[in-house]
Hints:
Elements: H1 2-8, H2 16-25, H3 33-47, H4 50-92, H5 95-99, H6 107-110, H7 116-130, H8 133-145, H9 150-170
Helix pairs in contact: 1-4, 2-9, 3-4, 3-7, 3-9, 4-7, 7-8, 7-9
Amino acid sequence: MEHVNQLCEQLPESAKDLGLNLAAVLKSEHLSPEEVWAVALTASYFVRNAALQEAVLADAQSVLGEGGVEDAQAAASLMAMNNIYFRFRHMIGKEVYGQMRAGLRMNRMMSPATSKKQFELSSLACAALAGCEACLQSHEVNLIQEGCTELQINDVVRIAATIQGVAVALEI
């Protein structure tokens, strides 16, 4: 966590809690180190803060390996697309849109380089960041089916929320 800690030292005094929170959530008792760093990296890509992406990637690379980094990139980009499309369908609330074929390729979600569970954890983080109720519900169900606990799911959202807070604080 050397690079993330260095980045957090740059936070303004008004946002010091976020640095402490990030250090705490990255030491999850319920997620493996690979899962923690996959979620953190995916969330950092999703919130689009270059300094945060660089710091998290520098600390995550040795834990995740090339496949884990690529899955984080894939999850962030696919969920950026999915959150818009499925949030639209949900918010409009017309049954006709729900019956239409999405026609959007998402093959990486079904065949990730790491594991379905890890990809789903990363996808859940993006769904939380985007506030897509339909995506949140879908990925939560998938994670429960993969054997995840509510404590693990809660930790994913805590990591995503803190990453978002740090990204905002870095822009202040």
